[in-house]
Design brief:
Layout (H helix, E strand, L loop, with lengths): L1 E3 L7 H6 L5 E5 L4 H6 L4 H8 L7 H10 L7 E5 L8 H12 L9 E4 L12
Parallel strand pairs: 1-2, 2-3, 3-4
């Protein structure tokens, strides 16, 4: 299992560790437009957007499309902002990115909810 959250960006050493996993949990924290137009003070928006902030839907989907090896049976999108994201936006971006990696046994996409535990995952 690989768990990638609170990164701000995905550096090469992390990308290397996200290969060959059975389960990938990837942050898809915010939609860029919602964050820019949202309620947070500018200083918080700057931190969220920084290299020590959070991964956006765009950053997560770009990784899934261009650098993800497609090996995980499950891809979980997690740490979605309640104020600056919608689950549907994160899901659609990730689904589009995963189109090139589709297989019968891999890449089942799951969204982690804010207030509910995930259902058990079995391999």
């Amino acid at each position: 299992m690989a768990f990638a959250t609170d990164l701000g960006y995905i550096p090469p050493n992390v990308k290397a560790q996200l290969k060959g996993v059975d389960l990938l949990l990837l942050e898809s924290n915010h939609d860029l437009e919602m964050l820019r137009d949202g309620p947070y003070p500018w200083s918080v928006k700057q931190r969220v957007l920084s290299r020590v902030g959070h991964l956006s839907n765009e950053t997560a989907s770009n990784f899934l499309e261009k650098e993800y090896d497609g090996q995980a049976a499950y891809v979980i999108l997690a740490h979605l902002s309640e104020s600056n994201n919608l689950p549907e936006l994160a899901r659609v971006a990730a689904e589009r990115a995963l189109l090139g990696h589709a297989s019968l046994l891999a890449n089942k996409l799951i969204l982690a909810e804010q207030n509910e535990p995930l259902t058990p995952i079995y391999f």
